[in-house]
Amino acid sequence: MTDQWFDRLVDRLSHLPGIGRKTATRLAFTLVDDRELARELSDALRETWERVRECPRCRNLTEGDMCSVCADGSRAGTVCVVENPADLRSIEDAGLFRGRYFVLHGLLAPLDGVGPTQLGVDRLVSMISGTGSSEVILALDATADGEATCAFLARALDGSGARITRLARGLPSGASVEFADALTLAQAFEGRQKV
Fold it and tell me: Angle, to 10 degrees, between the axis of helix 144-156 and the axis of helix 121-131?
């Protein structure tokens, strides 16, 4: 039988994405065995909780008055809309985009109480209108919620004067046509390119 504090630690760790009960138990034992690591992790978590907040312009995470992307005056003209800060980070790490971002922090899910207000759609519309952006790229997942959110955003941004685009979809490199689902095949046919 274990102590309640240990069970609580395992329970909290198992709430992290991708961490099951076994992994959470291993992590908990590691933290108990390595007091210095536990202290450093505790300090990092406390600092994150106290200092990190949303950028007032794009809703990215920052510890400054504005995130580094919004503070960079050379990034103008195009806005990329992403679901969460992790998506923004992936695009930035790839080095393929040099515009600005807007982070929704979720997708439309009315049954879960996530609507346009929670996603900051009014702020996005104001941002696009106020900056005179030439293009808005909707970089959202190709799921039912992602598709619904893209359709809603396209309607909301219709009068902004910006061109509304989506990331290309379809068969990924190395994928087999035989095992692709109907939606992926349909998107691949729609997005076909001249050879």
Answer: 50
